[in-house]
What we know:
This protein has 336 residues and is α/β, with parallel strands linked by helices. The protein folds into two domains: 12-37 and 247-335, Aspartate Aminotransferase, domain 1 (Alpha-Beta Complex), CATH 3.90.1150.10; 45-244, Type I PLP-dependent aspartate aminotransferase-like (Major domain) (Aspartate Aminotransferase, domain 2), CATH 3.40.640.10. It has helices at 12-18, 45-49, 54-68, 82-88, 107-114, 125-130, 151-162, 198-202, 216-226, 233-243, 246-269, 289-298, 321-335; strands at residues 27-28, 76-79, 97-101, 118-122, 135-139, 167-171, 192-197, 210-213, 273-278, 281-285, 301-302, 304-305, 312-316. Strands 2-8-7-6-5-3-4 form a seven-stranded mixed sheet, sandwiched between helices. A hairpin with a 2-residue loop joins β9 (273-278) and β10 (281-285). α3 packs parallel to α10. The radius of gyration is 20 Å and the shape is globular. The N and C termini lie far apart (48 Å).
Amino acid sequence: MPAKKLHHGGNRDWAKAQFSFTGEQWLDLSTGINAAPYPVPPLSDDGFNRLPDPSDSVRLKKAASAYYQAPSPAHLAIAPGSQALIQWLPRLRQKSKVAVIAPTYQEHHHAWSLAGHEVREFESLATARESSPDVIVIVHPNNPTGTLTERKLLLEIAGELAGRGGWLVLDEAFGDVTPDDCLDDAVDHPGLVILRSFGKFFGLAGVRLGICITNTTLASMLETAMGPWIVPGPTLEIATAAYGDTAWIEATRRQIAKDAIRLDNLLTKASCKIVGGTDLFRLAETDDASKLLRHLGDDGIMIRPFEYRLDWLRFGIPSNESDWLRLQKSLLRFYK
């Protein structure tokens, strides 16, 4: 039997089938991807015409290692998106007991289950620890709640799991907006495996780049398993430039922090309660969630619903004044 496909944000085909909007200009606020992306620099012909050289990957790893404050480039494994890493990691272990802290990004449970592991979800990290798993998966900050866990506790848990040959997998896909809460500098600590997404903060999800930051042995195993030339040349060029652009990075962090506050104010005025999120997305709670989802969708505005919490909606951050105004007007029409 084919595996069930999970629902994700960013699916315009799904939106076109669900809503009455017939225009071309969808406003996609259904993901946590930065809607004001990094400006792609001029690219070389070699990036398209030739297979990447090992030195191209080395340059990327050096830039990424500095950006994430990892111990060294050798602690990094690169892949065509963090989703690829989510699916590869379970295949590098024998059958294990896996605890996923939920609610969260559902692909983690899905990938570990497909690889034959015994997977359980826990709302409480303390309860998960008591179950004596081999692997604990935490999205940090969590998607969609934005929950963060104390660094000292995470390192303690990683060591505990390493003592029985296990891993603490931290998915830091949205960690760029809270760098002080990330543990990339600590991956020499036993048992710690961190996943990073280039596309979220830099707003270039289509270039497909994910990075695993972990001990050098596991990083090497991952890259060997995935094979050569796993990341395309143009992606390597773009990401190497982006990771080194400190001015853009700092300015973007400041701007999206302001925008998150602006979105909170807008949603609160529309009778939504802000219950979580990060600077890249906000999680709203409302008894009118299904009606609001329909109203915005019919206006060509995509947001993210959740099957497991029908009163939750996730909103991404608009990228320009025109999009802000479009969202504001639609919300006003709904709650007038």
